[in-house]
Amino acid sequence: MTPKFIKSAMDLQTEHRAICDGFLAQALQKTKKAKPFVKNAEAFYRWLKNVKSVEELLVSSKYGNDLVSACGFSDKARSQLTREELNIATRKVLNSIYKEARSEFRENILYRYLLTKGDTLGGSMRNLTGASAGTKLTQKIIKRLTGKKKKVHVLRSKSGKVQRVIWGNRTLLLDVKPQLIGKNIDVILLNRGDMNAPEEELLADKGRYIACGELKGGIDPAGADEHWKTANSALGRIRTAFGRKAPALFFIGAAIEASMAKEIFKQLKSGRLSYVANLNKGKQVDDLVDWLLSL
User: Fold this and answer.
1) pLDDT (tens digit per residue) in 262-290
2) What secondary structure letter does DSSP report for 280?
3) Please, what sign has the CA dihedral across residues 25, 27, 29, 32?
4) Is residue 202 within 8 Å of residue 169, measured between CB atoms?
């Protein structure tokens, strides 16, 4: 079975209109997710305006975490430090800010706070973009199975992210790290329909692997080639781990540039990739879903 809607490398390329729509969707999502950051920054600055010294800053408990952010410590960075280490570092940075800014130290602290929180928001958006491809794929799979009157079980994380889709004697796992590969794989289809089996147990048997795929939901053309390199490396690790008995491999990408498209199409024609699709082209994704469900 070969992709119905991919006859040449050009069929895989992302169109300019899709890139524009993708950036707009991201901007709208970012605006929405930024609201609590802006609201907290406003409250933080109202408090800062009433503070008269660095010492007064340091005794605050309500805005202690915000001050830590203003000193340039991300959530990941602060998780590596003890409370005492963080307090000492915060004091040093705040004193440095005061020496430089003097009467404008409050505004300076706010600006630095916004810089750190901007990075946090950016990271959150990158995670959301990465998850969007998986969400789009699983929604189509569930819809198609439901339309075929199949009994479908969906397991989700506490945040609502789909982790496992089970139907018949099939299990689809998302964003998992098989021990036999040692790195995360975006999608794995297994020949076992067990809703309660531990993830480690499901992934341990090479003989149950039917297909593995990499999904890249980023729409920015500037990062497209790097995303493909990452995905291609992951697919290469799967081939190495399984040897001649490798499962069917597929790739879905939102941003596919001309040079990428040629390389992907070449792998498709040679059999190194069993199926591919551009995430922005509904017919291609639907076709890939039909193929995946036919395995």
Assistant:
1) 999 999 999 999 999 999 999 999 999 99
2) T
3) negative
4) no
Tell me how far apart the 2 most distant CA atoms of the chain are, in Å: 72
Burial class (CB in 10 A: 0-12, 13-18, 19+), 244: exposed
What is the Cα–Cα distance from 108 to 89, expressed in whole angstroms? 17
Q: What distances in angstroms separate CA 149 from CA 55, 142, 294, one per listed residue?
A: 66, 11, 15
Over residues 98-143, the pLDDT tens digits come to 899 988 999 999 999 999 999 988 888 777 776 778 888 999 999 9
Q: Which residues contact 203 (CB under 8 A, 6 or more apart)?
A: 173, 176, 178, 179, 180, 188, 190
Q: Which domains does the chain have, with CATH numbers?
A: 9-27+127-294 (3.40.91.10), 33-124 (1.10.238.90)
Alpha-carbon gap, residue 34 to 26, rounded angstroms:
12
CB 54 within 8 A of CB 70: no
- Burial grade of 29 (CB within 10 A; 0-12, 13-18, 19 or more): middle
CA dihedral 231, 232, 238, 240 (to 10 degrees): -150
One-letter amino acid at 96 equals: S
List the 209-216 sheet strands across, edge first: 152-156, 162-167, 170-176, 185-190, 209-216, 248-253, 275-278
Q: What share of the chain in percent tops pLDDT 90? A: 74
Q: Which of 125, 165, 162 is nearest to 146 (CA)?
A: 165
Please tell me what DSSP assigns to residue 279. Answer: T
Cα separation of 34 and 16, whole Å? 27
For residue 137, give the 3-state DSSP assignment: helix
Distance of alpha carbon 106 from alpha carbon 112, whole angstroms: 10
